[in-house]
Amino acid sequence: MTVPFLDLGAAVTELREDIDAAIARVLDSGSYILGPEVDAFEDEFARYCEAAHCIGVGNGLDALHLVLRAWGIGPGDEVIVPSNTYIATWLAVSQCGAVPVPVEPVEFTYNIDPARIKAAISPRTKAIIAVHLYGQPADLSPICTIAKAHNLRVLEDAAQAHGARYHGKRIGSHGDAVAWSFYPGKNLGALGDAGAVTTNDNGLAQQLRALRNYGSQVKYVNDVQGYNSRLDALQAAVLRVKLRHLDVWNERRARIATIYGKALVDSGLSLPAVPEWATSAWHLYVIRHPRRDALQKFLTNQGIGTLIHYPIPPHRQKAYASGPTTFSPQPLAESISNEVLSLPIGPQFPESAAHKVIKAIHRFSTD
Ligand SMILES: *Cc1c(COP(=O)(O)O)cnc(C)c1O
Q1: How are beta strands 340-343 and 169-170 bridged, if at all?
Q2: Is 60 in the pocket of ligand 1 (CB under 6 A)?
Q3: Which of 195, 220, 324, 332 is surrounded by the most beta carbons within 10 Å?
Q4: Do 347 and 253 meet the contact criterion of CB atoms below 8 Å apart?
Q5: Is the pLDDT assigned to residue 58 strictly greater than 90?
Q6: Of 353, 283, 270, whose CA–CA distance to 86 is shortest?
Q7: For the chain, what percent of residues have pLDDT higher than 90?
Q8: Are 123 and 353 in contact, with CB atoms under 8 Å apart?
């Protein structure tokens, strides 16, 4: 590939000295799981997210799952989820023994459609998970209003939305809890698995600190049957370095998005639409095209890397085919999965490479 989809090494290269120093500090500290480095990252990320608390955990799926557990969600319960999302959102619900109830997206924001949520609520519904897909916030205000009226909790899946804003306020505490992933490819990425929850709920924060650590708040005293899902000091130290650059890196992503947006208006692609209340973190730059597979093949032949987020919606996965629940067709999620294509974007992605992508797309369109 002359234009790779993502160059994770480039992010490390840019910050190599600071990352080396952070790792050396942890090696010398003698503290490798939780501890002062994790405390410091939790404080800094909570402040960044405009949230009262941050609780570091092992990964993004655990962040979602532990919140649902803390809320006591289990067998017999239902949780509303987007039909158009990464499967982790659904798995967190299934792992609790509850049933994910899909709701279709707004077609050109790709996020859960608040107008369709009410029809999906039943007496068993306990919570709504809103995913900020591709870096763009879901329309949280009507979602929180519906939740309040039906006594439901709102969990945000912000795995793709570090630094995004909704009505000017950072993602991090609009809903009752916000789950984060720091998987290496995310906007704020560790050098391994890592995740967190942010929340303004003091009681929930306390519960999560126990749940992530064997259900224990005092060593060897176990109040609940918890999990082992702790953030380690090496990842926290690396995340602290990268957090200082997140806003600048997101601005670079936004600049690439602007370049694509201006140059591709008349190219026959459907471009991402950003509502006026949203500030996207531009985790992905996702376009739609009725001949998506041909476009992807053409770009591959030109040496341009692209990916599909996501080729199979969760309800169509084999993982959900033989369960006790049968899911009705989700026509929007299905047509989206057939037409979306993610163009390369990233904080180290050169503008010259964006112009190569644009030229190739214009060649495809005039073919
Ligand atoms: C990455 C991601 C997750 C899961 O995060 P992990 O750290 O890989 O467990 C959950 N939801 C969404 C939308 C994601 O993109």
Answers
A1: unpaired
A2: yes
A3: 195
A4: yes
A5: yes
A6: 283
A7: 95
A8: no
C-beta atoms surrounding 350 within 10 Å: 14
Residues in the chain: 367
Burial category of 35 from C-beta neighbours within 10 Å (exposed 0-12, middle 13-18, buried 19 and up): middle
The pLDDT score that the predictor gives to residue 44 is 98
**Residue 165 CA to chain centroid, in angstroms?**
14
Residues 122 and 99: beta-carbon distance below 8 Å: no
* Ligand 1 atom closest to the CA of 132, numbered from 1: 13
Q: How many CB atoms lie within 10 A of CB 248?
A: 9
Does ligand 1 lie within 6 Å of residue 157's CB atom? yes
* Model pTM above 0.85: yes
Determine the Cα–Cα distance for residues 164 and 61; give it in Å rounded to an integer. 20
How remote is the CA of residue 86 from the centroid of ligand 1, in Å? 7
**Is 211 within 8 Å of 226 (Cβ atoms)?**
yes
pLDDT at residue 86 in the model: 98
